[in-house]
Amino acid sequence: MSRMEELQARKRAERTADSDMVGKSSGLAPAAPSTPGVCFNATSSDKGDGPPLVTQTELNVAAQGMDMVFDPTNGSSHYEDDDNEDDDRLAICAPSDIHEFVSTPFTDLGVVQCQIFRHKSGLFNSYPSYELYLKDGMRFMVAARKRKKTTGAYYIMSLSKDEISRHDKNFIGKVRSNFTGTQFNIFDSGVAADDKERMKNGSGELRKDLGFINYESNILGSKGPRKMTVALPLVNDQGQAALFTQSKDSPDVPSLEAAVGEDGNVENVENVFCLVNRAPKWSERLAAYTLDFRGRVTMASVKNFQLVEDQEDDRILLQFGKVGTDEFTMDFRAPLTPMQAFGICLSSLDNKLACE
Fold it and tell me: How do strand 183-188 and strand 129-134 relate by DSSP bridges?
């Protein structure tokens, strides 16, 4: 007997019992039970040891082949844990050295949850600053400020939220873009290879290239949602990232830019791994493109994104989204560094002439 037939039989039995009880209350005794040795108890009810009453809602749900209660074991007495359960748990971070923590690839299992706060400045919020905090304990990590009078976007990253300057000891890196805002580079605080004067004086280490972000040109949103590709240095089993110090102008050394073609396609470049933003799905009910952020994002924005290794992969390495007028969430996992994740989010927050 199917589940639907069982519920219908129970419903008919309840109706028969109800009619018998009505007859007894009217002075009409119910018919004697036809089964020998079985006594009919007119005062019994479903509130006792019997099964609960079948509701019309339960019948409607059963008619669609569903159950009222979700059983994750699917009727099995043994439930096998998902292989990614440990990888999806929240990571507990208590760094003793913030500089080392933000610049070192995260290698532990779990997701690091962070909050980003924006402070507006300038006409039309042209030169904002941002502060990154660990959600657990709201511990400050990195601040960033957009510089003025530059050709493209130029963000300075610092371990101090009070003094954000390239000439301060807390300066740890920067994010720069081209004029149209379709390409962004993430660098550490080292000296650029083409800065011959500073290199000659030995005033610092050679600058490291930490990430490259490419946005597909999409004027007025004519091509649908944003499409972004991110190239990052490959991290080995010991948690060490591949070293990239040269610009794309050096023909003998491959660069992170070389891993992303002009059309945004991923190229095969040694010691580079690439991420793409997860394609949102169109919702007929909402008449909008949607992504499942598992409750971590509450406001719609073209700047919200999730990064995966490919579109078939459900393992999200970085997600970013809006939760308030000037508040955002940033969740990342290994092998990204907090600095890389923050830099990618800054690129999404920045206004783009060719992408909006």
Answer: unpaired
